[in-house]
């Protein structure tokens, strides 16, 4: 699973066989369907998520934000970046 | 090489399919969790039927196997839940069987699943790594993460495998009951995880229960986090994991990516300046791995998936000179 991995050591047969290519093609088609379903489900969660975000922004300005391990810091309001109409996209 | 952003996905919601690839023996069923569009590498939930038998053999691609439930006999020893197997590409595993059946996770790295019957290693087997079998539940202790900045107290790790080149790692992690972490995180690397037991919550995706899975490309926001009753999960990264914490729920992967680069310039100015100065767009020479090559044009973060299953990263044209190359002012960073 090495990103930018360099050699073929992790895979001794980098060119897929015909059977493998067909199998992968089928699995990729099904993955697209799964992806689309996830996007729909996550869009449906938007109203709830907006509330979660509001709660989070409130908590870090009152209870604190986890900077490192158990170290927390209360974030002043002027450090909260304005939303300025930005969407809340979660699946890319 | 890339897999799309699959998050969240719960494998309990779908049925098993029979493994039909040539070479594999009967009695293997799988649920696909994620698959790479370029090389076919994939992560699957795998069910071995009771009575399953497989002769000695190897996978052409690197294989990791984790036993969730049941029994798996490898060679002369019977292994139970919590067993982790790492088999470098081309490294022969002894004969395998399961008397009562076994529910596993299988990670085929760099290439699609394959099985070639053989009682010897492939001639070109990866001899830089070794076959290992770990009893992770009773053979390893939980550790406080040594990643800085750290996750909140109550998130513990057991490291199962580290790639010697990239520091990509496979690990068990748990959240103790009542765990909470109020920040948003992202990483420079892709991350995937599967919930062996328990439910956790993330602000973007809601609850992830037992059987829940995600494959998340780099620079995508996740968190804040919480778990009422705790979880046990297995996770993986494809490179060195650094926690970038922040509190802007609306930042994009592109903004996160640029923020990470700015952080690199601040934290490692000598390295950053060297890269800029030399305008390196290839892997710099490493005397430890002199044969390595890496073309950055091949990089695909997997974000921005298209309907046809392809994806792309947003590329910038030309070299970046926001910091007035090559002077990454060290004075400014003091």
Give the helix/strand layout.
The complex is a heterodimer of chains A (92) and B (334).
Chain A: H1 18-44, H2 46-60, E1 65-68, E2 71-73
Antiparallel strand pairs in A: 1-2
Chain B: E1 6-10, E2 17-18, E3 28-35, E4 42-48, E5 52-54, E6 57-58, E7 62-70, E8 72-74, E9 77-79, E10 83-87, E11 96-98, E12 102-109, E13 116-117, E14 132-135, H1 136-139, E15 155-162, E16 169-175, E17 179-181, E18 184-186, E19 191-198, E20 200-202, E21 206-208, E22 212-216, E23 225-227, E24 231-237, E25 244-246, H2 253-267, H3 269-278, H4 330-333
Tell me the series of helices and strands of chain A, N- to C-terminal: HHEE
* Biggest sheet overview of chain A: 2 strands, antiparallel
CATH-defined fold name of the largest domain in chain B: Jelly Rolls
CATH superfamily of the largest domain in chain B: Jelly Rolls
Short description:
The complex is a heterodimer of chains A (92) and B (334). Chain A is mainly alpha-helical.
Report on the architecture of this protein:
The complex is a heterodimer of chains A (92) and B (334). With 92 residues, chain A is mostly helical. Chain A is 46% helix and 8% strand. Chain A has helices spanning 18-44, 46-60, and strands at 65-68, 71-73. The radius of gyration of chain A is 22 Å and the shape is elongated. The two termini of chain A are 20 Å apart. In chain B, the strands form six sheets. Chain B has a seven-stranded antiparallel beta sheet with strand order 2-3-4-12-7-10-14. In chain B, β8 and β9 form a beta hairpin. The model of chain B is unreliable at 315-334 (pLDDT under 50).
Which properties best describe this structure?
heterodimer; A: mainly alpha; 2 strands; elongated; disordered N terminus; B: 334 residues; mainly beta; Jelly Rolls; 3 domains; 7-stranded antiparallel beta sheet; 4 helices
